[in-house]
Design brief:
The protein has 217 residues and is an all-alpha fold. The chain contains eight helices and no strands.
């Protein structure tokens, strides 16, 4: 009997020797970063009215008036029936006069974006005006809508590849394709001229007045 007890005790000691010792990883001291102090909105109705308008009201007033005056001039010269194109130029004017220091307001983006969008829209419009497609497009309006949407997508791709991204230029290709099946077929030189002249004038105004304008956003 004592012999069995002795064997059992040795067996327990052997198990204890083979059992792995517990290993505890030290807990690192985690320091949370200090969040930056955000300024408290101030001024009259700060959650509804821009808090900087009190100190920059002259910039707000001047730049909005310039945008309106520029568009009045363009609309008096251009064809106001081409809605998509006019909306695109109006959006460019918004970019120039509201965020003049943004990347999208640089001459490369404004002129290059509208130029490439006009090129894409003109190519697709000429394809739709070919004898094989023009009758089909006139009968099935949805094909024209698909082509117009594709012109926007292709224009965006070309602008991204050439680093001339200008969101308002999407209206340029859209407008040129939508009106391509009207009775006056061919290249719409009047619309293209209106687009390019507008882009050039907007860029020139930004270059001249950039030091006197600020971002309003």
């Amino acid at each position: 009997m004592l012999f069995l007890i002795d064997i059992f005790q040795k067996y327990q000691e052997l198990i204890k020797l083979r059992a792995p010792k517990s290993f505890h990883l030290p807990h690192p001291d985690i320091h949370l970063p200090h969040l930056p102090h955000l300024p408290t909105p101030h001024g009259f109705l700060p959650h509804f009215i821009d808090q900087y308008i009190h100190s920059r009201w002259n910039h707000y007033f001047l730049q909005c008036c310039l945008a309106s005056a520029f568009l009045i001039l363009l609309l008096l010269i251009g064809d106001t029936l081409k809605t998509a194109i006019v909306v695109g130029i109006a959006s460019s004017a918004f970019t120039i006069f509201v965020v003049p220091n943004s990347v999208a307001a640089t001459p490369r983006k404004v002129i290059g974006g509208h130029l490439l969008a006009a090129l894409v829209g003109t190519i697709i419009a000429l394809l739709l005006q070919s004898p094989l497609l023009v009758e089909i497009v006139i009968e099935k309006r949805y094909l024209l809508d698909i082509a117009a949407a594709l012109s926007v997508g292709i224009g965006i791709f070309v602008m991204v590849v050439t680093n001339t991204e200008h969101p308002p230029a999407a209206g340029t290709s859209l407008g040129l394709v939508i009106q391509c099946c009207q009775p006056s077929a061919g290249v719409d030189w009047s619309s293209i001229s209106f687009i390019l002249v507008s882009a050039l004038l907007l860029s020139a105004v930004r270059i001249v007045l950039r030091d006197r304008m600020v971002n309003l956003l």
